[in-house]
Amino acid sequence: MANATPVMEAIDETLAGKRPVFEVVYEWATTVDHKKIGLMYIFLALIFLIVAGIEAILMRIQLAVPNNHFISPQVFNQLFTMHGTTMVFFMGMPILFGFGNYLVPLMIGARDMAFPRLNAFSFWISAFGGLLLYFSYFGASGLYGAGSAPDVGWFAYAPLTAKVFSPGHSTDYWTLSLLLSGIGTIGTALNIVTTTICMRCRGMTMMRLPLLVWLFLITSCMVFIAIGPLTAAQIMLTLDRYIGAHFFDTQAGGSAVLWMHYFWIFGHPEVYILVLPAFAFVNEIVPVFSRKAIFGYPAMVAATVAIGFISLSVWAHHMFTVGLGAAGNTFFVFATMVISVPTGIKIFNWLATIWGGKIHFATPMIFCVGFLFQFLIAGLTGIMLSAAPFDWQLSASYFVVAHFHYVLVGAIVFALFAAFYYWYPKVTGRMMSETLGKWHFWLFLIGFHLTFDFMHVPGLLGMPRRIYTYEAGRGWEMWNLIVGIGAIFQVVGTVCFIFNLIRSCFRGEIAGHDPWDAWTLEWATPSPPPSYNFAIEPTVHSRRPLWDLKHPEDPDSDYE
Ligand code: HEM
Ligand SMILES: [Cu+2]
């Protein structure tokens, strides 16, 4: 089968009795090929997406009507903790780094990552981190006293996490699982930085790097700076809980605010660690479907570097309500607002790329359009929240939840879907169904807006976040019902997507090596690419090497 995926080949050969299942599992479990590792990251993340999605639906069912007793308060606390932690650490980061793993070496004309074994190690330790988090559910009373999931929120504020307030081991599962996955994330970041710096093919100067590679490079640098404080905080918390240290124990001279600083010095850059790869996908997809080179490449690179730096210095906008004092708050208000400048440059450049282009609204492109629109709105509510007095009113309300889901779902998840439709033919050799793709898009878009547009309203009406139920007559019930209905739409859309992923693997149209008429190097390889990527190491002369090959009459290299 010339056009089979590695996965399908494995399935076929196993079914035909040519290879025992064990051998196939062994091959994947021991692989150091960046493409297989990338796929395993994505597969793992999709499983966690389903799990965390179920947790979200359970919460929305509970909140759909007032005075509901579908779920107990304890379980509700566990659900939002597990949902948030899973989505950020075991869905978001793995799926994005999965794409990075798959694409970065291909796009710079390399045969693999710089450290293939470290790459495998990083994947497995992250996967074990995720398993450990969920092991807390199955631990039951016997095993080291686990048996209930963590319930302290995804940012686990002190002093709630102290042994007195959170006895048992669920908080320890949370801590250790983030410690492990943090090590994996650092390993992957190290690999991406080294690969990008050292393994580029001939002619691939830094200013000819595909923007995707630039964005993963900067994301990885941010990982170095952000994960350290997280790891330190997890170790301190463990010391507090196990040997009676008092880092975060106010009564013994520790500081609860110290935890917040540690957590958000990690937590805010984390937001950008998730969003920059999403930008990366949009940077590749929008120009190809507008049939134009990206507008303002150097400005895009500069804006990314600026976002990287500034986002490291805005963490205390998560702490306006703590009482940092006027000087502290003022600094963080301005630092936060300044980010809108480079972000605005990016939005402008995407629009300028689309402007006057021959736009082709295939599924990857429509998801990018959704991304642009929703990211703009998320940025606007972000600016609103960055004004400290406004934040004081709404900090612990549903307005904030609506804001950050606009970023996390409206921007990041939309860009991810675009990436799936765009690179699927490269990975599997087959196209995803456009019809199902359009169904997916519209169902998900309607669901997204029903859920998150209307979630701002109960927030403005004073509905706090993390409440398990509420009484009737406060004007919240209609909005919560709409929000719940929207969530169902999103589920149906996602089911279309998963069905499309599986179905297209067997039935999809054969793609050929370059179905979108694109211009970056991964499209120069067969679909799927062989394990060594390139038989002959490519040489490039411009930012769009494949364009040069296809258009000898008007190559970019003439203008460089
Ligand atoms: C780019 C992707 C972004 C993501 C993923 C994101 C995510 C989040 C998250 C998870 C929170 C919740 C904090 C909490 O639970 O207390 C939050 C709060 C906040 N975000 Fe964003 N955000 C993003 C962009 C922005 C932007 C562009 C701004 C402003 C220009 C902004 C300003 C804020 C502020 C001020 C808060 C504090 C809310 C509070 O503590 O009450 N965010 N964001
Ligand atoms: Cu932040």
UniProtKB/TrEMBL annotation:
GO terms for molecular function: cytochrome-c oxidase activity; heme binding; metal ion binding; oxidoreductase activity. Gene3D superfamilies: Cytochrome c oxidase-like, subunit I domain. InterPro entries: Cyt_c_oxase-like_su1_dom, Cyt_c_oxase-like_su1_sf, Cyt_C_Oxase_1, Cyt_c_Oxase_su1_BS, Cyt_c_oxidase_su1_bac. This is Cytochrome c oxidase subunit 1. Keywords: Cell membrane, Copper, Electron transport, Heme, Iron, Membrane, Metal-binding, Oxidoreductase, Respiratory chain, Translocase, Transmembrane, Transmembrane helix, Transport. Its EC number is 7.1.1.9. Residues 22-541 form the Cytochrome oxidase subunit I profile domain. Its main location: membrane. It is a multi-pass membrane protein. It catalyses: 4 Fe(II)-[cytochrome c] + O2 + 8 H(+)(in) = 4 Fe(III)-[cytochrome c] + 2 H2O + 4 H(+)(out). It comes from Granulicella arctica.
